[in-house]
Amino acid sequence: RVERTMPKIMVLNEQTACRIAAGEVVERPVSVVKELVENSLDAGADLVNISITGGGIESITVVDNGCGISQEDTPLAFQRHATSKIKNAADLDRITTLGFRGEALPSIAAVADLTIKTRTPESSEGYYMHIRGGNMLDSGPAGCPVGTSIKVKDLFYNTPARRKYLKSKSTEGGLINDLVYKMALVRPRVRFVFIHNGREVLRSPGSGNIPDVLAAVYGLRAAKLMLPVNVVEAGIEIDGYVGKPELSRSTRQQITVAVNGRTVRSTTVNLALEDAYRGLLTVGRHPVAVLSIRLSPEKLDVNIHPAKMEIKMDREEELRSLVARAVRSVLRDTNLTPVISGVA
Ligand code: ADP
Ligand code: MG
After folding, report:
1. Separation between Cα atoms, residue 176 and residue 152, nearest integer Å
2. Closest CA to 308 of 57, 106, 24, 29
3. Residue 155 is part of which domain span?
4. Are 185 and 255 members of one domain?
5. What pTM does this model have?
6. 289, 179: one domain
7. Is residue 3 part of a domain?
């Protein structure tokens, strides 16, 4: 006779639950950078300094000049589902911050070695905490400027399966590079500095002027080949720059889309750009574009995936046609020569 006894059901302890949840939020080093920088932006920072070594596998440090966290709140920031950004379920329908799930810091701290130093403007001194694999090792007063600095190292040291699945340092670093470029393009008022292995890769001026960031990211020559797009229609606002066809690329990587300030992947916008550039680009070529879309937060569900890279909008079809029309009219107004099919 087969024995069919199942062990009794038990609620997992917080540390185990956290390690499991971490797998969804922190997939690779770029996820850590994304979460930390989003927190800096939510904190109102206008200076974000990102410094990584070894493709972010060795270390990631994000320093901001935002509002900081009070000493009393700092331990809370590392508790799961603890957030200062929403108060109740109703707030989920009108999210204006990038974060709201209260999962990033506890998740990162569960699978890495993390040190935070933070200070609010009201406080005369800062506070630091050192957490490793979810265990608090040390904490106390710290001398630091107003704002927050978080250093993450030994990512996935206690989850070897995850660590093994990471790609090379240069691949992981490249993903971080792409993300930082996109965030800088989407937030032109913020000064971003990105340093990899001690070398400065990006410094955006924080002037609020997208062409300045375009020049910092793509170079002056490319920036001069970008055309402004601005439309407001039926409560959807589109603002950004699209490249002349000669600036085309072989991947969609240089298409940057933000919805309400959040960098997202949007099939809808990709399709709209394809519509707009039809006849101007050869097959397999994609435009360079930065498009910032604003619509009322009730029209948006950002809570469909823990990493929030994908979102759901009420009006995808409307958006597609609006983006396509706006971009096409900008391209039409500048005298462009269509490519002859088959000739690059
Ligand atoms: P969420 O961003 O979803 O609220 P996180 O785990 O990312 O959750 O952060 C938890 C809380 O810690 C935030 O709600 C915020 O109050 C605080 N916090 C995190 N990072 C920063 C930062 N760089 N500056 C100020 N406060 C921060
Ligand atoms: Mg967050």
Report:
1. 14
2. 24
3. 14-203
4. no
5. 0.92
6. no
7. no
The interface predicted TM-score (ipTM) is 0.99
| Ligand 1 atom closest to the CA of 98, numbered from 1 | 2
Tokens 């939020």 belong to residue: 25
Local structure of 21: helix, strand or coil: helix
Q: Is the CB of 134 under 6 A from ligand 1?
A: no
Probe target for ligand 1 pocket from 32, 42, 65, 149, with the most ligand atoms within 8 Å of CB: 42
- Token pair 């490319």 is found at 222
Nearest Cα neighbor of 237 from 254, 264, 220, 261 is 261
Structural domains counted in the chain: 2
Does the CB atom of residue 71 touch ligand 1 within 6 A?
no
Find how far residue 189's CA is from the centre of its chain: 16
Query: Are both 178 and 148 inside the same structural domain?
Result: yes
- For residue 38, the CA-to-ligand 2 centroid distance in Å is 6
Residue to probe by mutation, ligand 1, list 72, 73, 83, 262, most atoms within 8 Å of CB: 83
The CATH number given to whatever domain includes residue 48 is 3.30.565.10
Q: Which amino acid is at 340?
A: I
Distance 87 CA to ligand 2 centre (A): 15
103 lines ligand 1 (CB under 6 A): yes
- Check whether 52 has a pLDDT greater than 70: yes
- Domain with residue 285: its CATH number is 3.30.230.10
Neighbours of 264 (CB within 10 A): 20
Using the atom order of ligand 1, give the atom closest to the CA of residue 97: 2
Closest CA to 150 of 172, 178, 131: 131
Given a contact cutoff of 8 angstroms between Cβ atoms, the answer to whether 335 and 280 are in contact is no
Across the chain, where does the E strand assignment appear? Answer: 47-53, 59-64, 113-119, 126-132, 135-142, 147-153, 191-196, 199-203, 226-233, 236-243, 255-259, 262-264, 289-294, 300-301, 312-313
Ligand nearest to the CA of 79: 1
How do residues 120-156 score in pLDDT, each as one tens digit?
999 999 999 999 999 999 999 999 999 999 999 999 9
Contact criterion met (CB below 8 Å) for 110 and 133: yes
Q: Do 182 and 247 have their domain in common? A: no
